[in-house]
Amino acid sequence: MKTTKIFIYLSVLTVMAAVSFAFINLSKAPGNKGFAVVELFTSEGCSSCPPADGLVAKLQKESTGKPIYILAFHVDYWNRLGWKDVFSNVSYSKRQRDYAKYLKLSSVYTPQIVVNGKKEFVGSEEGTLRNAIKAALQKEAPAQLTLTNIKADQQQVQVRYQAEGDGSNSVLLLALVQKTAKIPVKAGENKGRTLSHVQIVQKLQSIGLSPNKSGTANIALPNGFNPQNWEIIGLIQNINSGEITGAARAGFPLAIANDVAVKSIK
After folding, report:
1. Strand positions, DSSP E, the chain
2. Neighbours of 233 (CB within 10 A)
3. Which of 15, 55, 181, 186 has the most CB atoms in a 10 Å sphere around its CB?
C-alpha cells in the first residue's frame, strides 16, 4: 500500500513538474510574431478585379486587431481602355513591375495579390490567399516596426518611426491609406457599376533607414482629407529581394480628427 501511495505521489510531482516546465518555456517564447502584408494590384477598368476587391474587403472585416495589413494599389495601365481610375498611379504600376522582377514573372496582370513580397497569385483566389496568410502568420518576423506620435494639419501628417531587427538592404515605406470608397464607373469594362474599394493607397513614401533605424517623416495630405477614414501603414522592405520583413499601422487619434474637421469648416 505504501509503495502504491509513493508511486502515485511521485507521478503527480512528475506531471506538475512537466506542466511547470512547459509554462516556463511558453513564457520565454519569441515575441516577434508573424504578420501578413497583402498587396492587391487592381483597377476600376478591369472586369476581373471586382471579385478580388470584394475578397480583400471581406478579409479586412475579419482581420480587425490582427497583424494583417491590406494595401490596394490601383495601377494605371488600364486607363487607356476607356475609364480612368481616379486612384491609379504610375508609381503603383512600377511597384507591380518590380515584383515581376523579384518573383521572376514574365508579365504583370490584374487582379494580382502579393503576400509579404514573396508569394503572388490571382487576386480572387480565396483559398490561396488564406493559406498564404496562415503561413505568414506562423513565421517569426525578421524586423519590428512601431509608428507613434501622429500629428496632422490640413497639409501634412507627421509620424515617428522606430525599426528594430534586421534592416540590412532595406527601406521604410509609409503608405497613406484611405479605408473605404465607392465610385460609379461610367465607361470601360465595368461601365454602369458602382465599385466598392477598401484600403486604397493614396500616397507611398520611401525613406532610407538611418543607422539607428528611427526618425520622423512627413506625408503630404490630399484635398478633402478626413482622418476618420484614413490610416498609415508602414513596411520594411528588402530592396534586393522584395521581401517585406516588418510592418505596422497607425490610426489618426480622435483629437486629430476633430481638430482637422474644425479647421476644414473654418
Report:
1. 36-42, 68-74, 112-115, 119-122, 143-152, 156-165, 170-184, 194-208, 214-220, 230-238, 244-251
2. 22
3. 55
CATH number, domain with residue 93: 2.60.40.10
CA–CA separation, 47 and 50 (whole Å): 7
As for how many domains the chain has, the answer is 1
194 strand-pairing partners: 184
| DSSP codes joined into one string, 52-96 | HHHHHHHHHHHTTTSSEEEEEEE-STTGGGT---TT--HHHHHHH
Asked whether residue 164 is domain-assigned, the answer is yes
- Relative orientation angle of helices 49-62 and 126-137, to the nearest 10 degrees: 40
Residue 56 lies in a domain: yes
Each residue's pLDDT tens digit, 34-60: 999 999 999 999 999 999 999 999 999
Domain-located, residue 1: no
- DSSP annotation of 109 reads -
Q: Measured between alpha carbons, how far is 232 from 159 in angstroms, rounded to an integer?
A: 9
Tell me if 206 is assigned to some domain.
yes
Instruction: Classify strands 170-184 and 194-208 as parallel, antiparallel or unpaired.
Output: antiparallel
Contacts of 156 (CB under 8 A, 6+ apart): 218, 219, 220, 221
pLDDT tens column, 106-124: 999 999 999 999 999 999 9
